[in-house]
Amino acid sequence: MVGAILQYMKEHATAGAMHDSDECFPPPLCHPGMREAMIYRILNWYGYEERPGKPIMWVYAPAGYAKTAVASTVSAKLEEKSTELGFNLLGATFFFWRTSPDQNSPARFIITLTYQLFVSIPELTPHIENAIKRDLMMLSKALEVQLMKLIIAPFKALGDTKHMPNRLVIIDGLDECINSDQESRVQKKYAEDREAIQIRILDLIRTLASHSFPLSFLMLSRLEAWIKEHIDSRKFESLVEFVNLYEVGDRMHDVQTFVREELSRLGVDDEDLAEHLVGRAAGHMLYASTVCYASKGVLMVKSLMFTGGGI
Q1: Which helix (H) or strand (E) covers residue 10, if one does?
Q2: Which of 37, 137, 170, 256 is the most exposed place for a label (fewest CB within 10 A)?
Q3: Which has the higher per-residue pLDDT, 310 or 146?
Q4: 152-161, 207-216, 262-271 — which is least confidently predicted?
Q5: What is the maximal distance between C-alpha atoms in the chain?
Q6: What is the mean pLDDT of residues 92-114?
Q7: Could you give the 3-state DSSP secondary structure of residue 184?
């Protein structure tokens, strides 16, 4: 029966939202030597033996600051450590993606997390199986009901979980959950729907994090006003550690490392050009990555930098 339940969840989960899905292979990892301070900060906060003081870390930054690369790199490092330890450190992942109908909607958020927890935490398997067997219409229920029946109740059924290793749940791109399955496309209503569903996802995470389960949550997103306002509220006060990605580490070093590697990839061997691009970027990865990814050689790099090229 376990096989049938696993297949049922596989059919309803969003495979593309998982860190190791074929759809995002190869994953967007941080360049070697880059974002090292941020990676260390996350791994130092998360502990599989001793749980962090605050179960949620919110990493925020503007577009183009490699938030998804950070999430993917942390996932990869935990997978590697899991192989060494013989058990899963990574509980579950969900990467929201604005242009994917499956990944920009919250509809399969809970079942996708449940499927991964079913696999990564064997102790939960019989309890999740029983929850689904009792109600095969579970996935038509509200997300809050799914959370309670498929994740919270199975954890509670375990009793004392203090002896269990802590697992990390990674949720990337919350701001890209835009609820695209909604029929309304009137601009104001669309914006309201987007804000409401992102706040709803935050409340689901808060509800789960407020229990003393062996789970920690890494969230990465842009600094949208409604997200910050909600996380700043009293409900989240004792649960969240805030991290501004832009302020962690040596931005100039990261940009310099990135520019040199990308120019080398383009076959451009021009030290003056590299230094000039690093200077123009002034620590802003978005500028450097836009120039490098839009370029096909030294002439185009110079054109984009010195004439603007639409940047």
Answers
A1: helix 2-12
A2: 137
A3: 146
A4: 262-271
A5: 67
A6: 90
A7: coil
